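anyone seen this seq b4? input:
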Amino acid sequence: TLFIGLTYTFGVIHHSLDHGETWIETPLPDYSSSYPIEHIEFDNQGNIFLGTINGVYRSTDMGASWQKMNSGLGGIHISTMYIDENDRLYVYTTYSSTTDGLYYSTNSAEFWSSIPLMGSFYFVLNIVVKNQVIYAMNSLSDFFISNNMGENWVNADDGINDNSLYSLHLDMDDYLYVGGRVMHRSTQ
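predicted toks r here
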């Protein structure tokens, strides 16, 4: 099954059961915005999560139905979303004109817990997580790592010479990639 959020359809998710030959349009409940769906993630249990300007939506039936899953979130505009190897879901949220915070859920988005951020975070553009180590990049192209679920953060910009970072990726061999104008790979 393929899933897409289109920029010209608001509050609607599309999925295809035939390799994109035809598409099924499913409206999201209580979607009150003219912004498209920005993030689509899948966990190992078959649940599908959407990150939107109206918060997180979850489907447990392959996209046939959706429900909002915002209990415990402050702001609800999801600016980045990630699911780790243990099906923990991480989101960074904002309000309409200010930043909010980083959250995680261990129960398929039933409830969200806050992860502390330090003052040097301005706006989290992207996160990846493995073994509860959080790698985060902000809109000022600063790169941070937390080994203890946000209690402490270390700035890890050494060797990164790009002031336009916008993407993080962790590969299967545990190399971390950050990209903007230039692609950088971790040495370990």
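The mean pLDDT is 87. The chain has no helices and 18 strands. kinda curious what u guys think
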